[in-house]
Every structure is written in C-alpha cells, then in structure tokens.
Amino acid sequence: MREKVLGLKREKNALILAHNYQVPEVQDVADFVGDSLGLSMEAAKTDARLIVFAGVYFMAETAAILNPGKRVVIPDPNAGCSLVDSISPGDIARWRARHPNGVVVAYINTSAAVKAHSDYVCTSANCLKIVEALPRDVPVLFVPDKYLGLYIKHRTGRENMDVWEGECYVHAELTAPKIMDAIRRHPDAELLVHPECGCGTACLLELPKLGVEPRFMSTEGMVRYVKVSLKPRFIVATETGIIYRMEREAPGKEFIPVSQEAICRYMKLITLEKVYLSLLREEYRVTVPTHIAERARRAIERMFEYT
Ligand code: 13P
Ligand code: SF4
C-alpha cells in the first residue's frame, strides 16, 4: 500500500500533508508532517496540483482557503474536531454587538465561517505573540478553546479578554491529577504540555511551587525541543500520535504519555488505505464558498505576520 501511495503521488503531482497525530504509516508517506501552523504554511507555498490532507477537516479547509485554484481533498470527510463544533459565527456576532470595537482572535481549530467572522487566526505556536501585539485597551474575544484562552490570558496578564467555553475532548481529559501522577512516577523527566490541556492553569500556577517547570508548546514545538534538550526523558501531555515522530527524530530518549487514552478519534479516522483511495479518486473534495474564503483568508494571512 505504501508503494502504491508513493507511486500515485508522483504520477499525480500531489502533495500529502499529515498532522503530527496521524498514524505512523500515514506520517511515513507524507511530504510534510507538522503542527497546524507548519501545515498551513506548507499549504500556502505548494505548487502541487492536488493536496491530500491527512488531518482533520478544519485543516484541509484552511489549505483550500489558501489555495483557491487547487484541488484539496481529505481521505475521510468525517474527521471533525470537538473545538470546531463548539462555536458558530452567530456567537461571534452577538459578542461583537456588545463590543463594537472589540477584536476576535480565533484558534485555527474553527470552521471557515467562524474564521471569516474573526480578525485574527492563531495556532498554539503563535497565539501568545498575536494577543501580546494587540493594543492593551481593546476588548478581545478568544475562541473557542477555554484552556488555551485562559493560558494566554494568564501569560499576557490581559484583563479585558473574554474566553469562549469550548474544549478539545482529548486534551480536556489531561487533568492536573493525571499530570501529578506522571510526575510522581517519573520525577526526573521534563514535562511538555500542549496548552489545550485541562491541567493548563494548575500546571502554570502550582507546579513551579513544587520545582517543576512545565514547557507549554505546540506539537511541533515539542518535537523540536526533544531533539535539542539534553534531558533523556519526557512526560508528554498531548495526543499520543506525536510519540512516533519523537521516537524517530530523537532516538534513544524516552517519551511517557500522560495518558495512553489520549487518542483523537477524528485524527484516527484517516488510514493509509483511505489516503490511497483519496489520491486515486481525488476525493473527498474540500471547498469553501468564495465570500467566506476571502474573509477567512484575511484573518489567516494576518496570522502569517506572526510566524
Ligand atoms: P498543534 O497545532 O499544536 O499541532 O495542535 C493541533 C491540534 O489539533 C491539537 O489538538
Ligand atoms: Fe480537535 Fe482535540 Fe482532535 Fe485536536 S485532538 S483535532 S483539538 S478533537
């Protein structure tokens, strides 16, 4: 199957993009594996005719927004995201009615329509930079992840920031007691935390008192960090798919997931066989209506100024 995918990819001048949570055999056939920011940057610069997006729907939608003339396909259109489902454009319009000069910052894990109603898009890799650069006196709405939003609010010390109540159903389960348990079992390991985690505020406020300094990072930030860190062991608070890349790119080090159950059912809908069929049939096509895409693209392009 792997050889068939690679042959067809060459024949069709296609680009396969895969998120860090994809299963190993899908990561292995991809031209680029990365986090949401890296994947959207790759999507923005490709000259491939066909983009096969091995990730979740909002990621493929972002690639389609950035490549209006190209064919973007996803191997399974049901690969959604619990964060995307937690907010609608109407929710943003209601907030704007109360804050006419407010600024809306949307995490990239949102629908194209929500992005179109937002001023900035951000990812876990650049959210702090973007919020820090906003004038201190404008009210801000951050959507939709509450843990990421509270993390930003705390780190920037910003009072006039409303945070939406959405959550990632996988990361919300990575709670403070689970992190504490992992630290007790592996006291010499370094702690890497994705800012969507349910333990966010506790990690930020309580762990330093115990002499533990968690590192908050996007998935790609984690991979980069484990390669250069001198530490041999890491506790990893995110979806377990990331461990495959860590083991491959930082061989000899040990990676301990906070929970073996931290598996995103949406990401795992994509299989190597579905990638093959997607390449072969050039489906399932992801399109965004032009009037939505144009407005969403503005918010995404503003994000690129902070990479
Ligand atoms: P990253 O951008 O850090 O890869 O996160 C994407 C995501 O969906 C996290 O659950
Ligand atoms: Fe969405 Fe969470 Fe899955 Fe990431 S891990 S795609 S945030 S449901």
Could you please describe the fold and organization of this structure?
The protein has a four-stranded parallel β-sheet, with helices on both faces. Strand 3, helix 4 and strand 4 form a beta-alpha-beta unit. The protein is α/β, with parallel strands linked by helices. The chain is built from 14 helices and twelve strands. Helix 11 packs parallel to helix 12. The chain has three domains: 101 residues, 3-Layer(aba) Sandwich (Rossmann fold); 84 residues, 3-Layer(aba) Sandwich (Rossmann fold); 88 residues, NadA-like (Rossmann fold, 3-Layer(aba) Sandwich), CATH 3.40.50.
Low-confidence stretches: none
Binned, the helix content reads 40-55%
Distance between the termini: 36 Å
Largest β-sheet summary: 4 strands, parallel
Number of strands: 12
| Number of helices, where a helix is a run of at least 4 consecutive DSSP H or I residues | 14
Radius of gyration: 19 Å
What name does CATH use for the topology of the largest domain?
Answer: Rossmann fold
| Overall 3D form | globular
CATH superfamily of the largest domain: NadA-like
Average residue-wise pLDDT: 96
Bound molecules: 1,3-dihydroxyacetonephosphate, iron/sulfur cluster
CATH class of the largest domain: Alpha Beta
Oligomerization category of the chains in this entry:
single chain
Strands ordered across the widest β-sheet: 2-1-3-4
User: Which architecture of the largest domain would the CATH scheme give at its second level?
Assistant: 3-Layer(aba) Sandwich
Strand and helix order: HEHEHEHEHEHEHEHEHEHEHEHEHH
Count of all domains? 3
The structural class is: alpha/beta
Q: What share of the residues does DSSP label as strand, in percent?
A: 15-25%
